[in-house]
Amino acid sequence: MFRVLDVEAAVPTAPLDPATVVDGSPSAGSRALAAVAGVEVGVWEMSPGTATDVEVDEVFVVLSGSATVTFEDGERVDLAAGSVVRLRAGEHTTWVVHETLRKIYVA
């Protein structure tokens, strides 16, 4: 039996920790959709603004919006619908969200 996962449903968001906010007043949140063999699949969303983060092991696909992620080593990745990215646990990143970013993640 198949179960359709609703990636369009609302994601509860809250303001980010002020210690991580570099610019603006971004909010973010996530909603788990399923667990498969101990791995979580979910939807994450962040509103415009700039914030830092320390990543977990994750692969994600951008569903909508646009952003730029800069890694501690200086590498920059521009994100748009269809972008696929692999994050590694412990990586320090800075997220500049230009248009509310929505992604589906596997972590």
The main sheet comes to: 9 strands, antiparallel
Task: Kindly report the average pLDDT value.
Answer: 94
Q: How many runs of DSSP E, i.e. beta strands? A: 9
Q: Give the name of the CATH superfamily.
A: Jelly Rolls
Give the helix tally.
0
Question: Into how many domains do the coordinates divide?
Answer: 1
What is this structure, in a nutshell?
The protein has 107 residues and is mainly beta.
Give the topology, please:
Blueprint: E1 14-15, E2 21-23, E3 27-36, E4 39-46, E5 49-54, E6 58-71, E7 76-79, E8 84-87, E9 92-106
Antiparallel strand pairs: 1-3, 2-5, 3-4, 4-9, 5-9, 6-7, 6-8, 6-9
Please supply descriptive tags for the structure shown above.
107 residues; UGlyAH_Cupin_dom; RmlC-like_jellyroll; nine-stranded antiparallel sheet; mainly beta
Question: What does it look like?
Answer:
The structure is a single chain. This protein has 107 residues and is mainly β. It has one domain: Jelly Rolls (Sandwich), CATH 2.60.120.10. Helix content is 0%, strand content 62%. Strand 6 (58-71) and strand 7 (76-79) form a beta hairpin. The chain is globular. The protein starts with 13 loop residues before the first strand and ends with a strand. Residues 39-105 form the (S)-ureidoglycine aminohydrolase cupin domain. This is (S)-ureidoglycine aminohydrolase cupin domain-containing protein. Pfam families: Cupin_3. InterPro entries: RmlC-like_jellyroll, RmlC_Cupin_sf, UGlyAH_Cupin_dom.
